[in-house]
Write a structure and sequence with these properties.
about 190 residues; alpha+beta; Aminopeptidase; seven-stranded mixed β-sheet; 6 helices; about 30% helix; about 30% strand; globular
Length: about 190
């Protein structure tokens, strides 16, 4: 029978390995817009638009919808007041990705205190993963970060081993360079 491995203890071994495998967080950066290696999306139905009017509920809802698969847990316990403070902060800009005017994903850019811009959150909704939109979405995030004024000194992001398996490769393919890695117990 093809599901014998379920009864063989393989699931228990997998869950044990998951529990004891350290989570590796990788920090990447870019110091010039010339480093960007853009990826275009040839499908004109995929569009990215800035949320001109701040809407903390949009940020909260996309955080949950996109982050569910990738164990985004840092803000899950936040109250509505905490979300309002975060989502309405002047240093935060939010962009929505749309396919045929259907929400497909988002990213947040947050200016830091050191002259940089962090790609704070970035991702696609599950039904849009694997359709070639991630590179184009990241290209947009990096371009928009470099357009922020006053001028910035770097664009940076962090990802971890719980994120999409191709997340790190996407960041590197766009020209971002690793500057730090940290391991934490799961």
């Amino acid at each position: 029978m093809r599901f014998n491995w379920l009864r063989s203890g393989a699931v228990d071994v997998f869950l044990y390995q998951l529990a004891v495998t350290p989570i590796i967080t990788t920090y990447l950066e870019m110091h010039s817009p010339d480093q960007l290696r853009p990826k275009r999306c040839v499908d004109g139905r995929f569009q990215i638009r800035q949320k001109k009017e701040r809407d903390w509920q949009f940020n909260r809802d996309l955080y949950f919808a996109v982050g569910e698969m990738w164990s985004w847990n840092d803000k899950r316990v936040w109250t509505d007041e905490q979300w309002k403070e975060y989502g309405l902060a002047p240093e935060l800009r939010t962009f929505g990705a749309y396919y045929d005017d259907r929400l497909a994903g988002y990213y947040e850019l947050r200016r830091d205190d050191e002259g940089g811009v962090e790609i704070a959150y970035f991702g696609l909704l599950p039904e849009f993963i694997g359709r070639g939109f991630g590179g184009a979405l990241l290209t947009s995030a990096i371009k928009e970060a470099w357009r922020m004024s006053p001028s910035i000194t770097r664009v940076w992001v962090h990802t971890c081993t719980l994120d999409h398996p191709r997340a790190l490769a996407n960041y590197q393919a766009r020209g971002m360079v690793i500057y730090k890695q940290e391991a934490a117990e799961n």
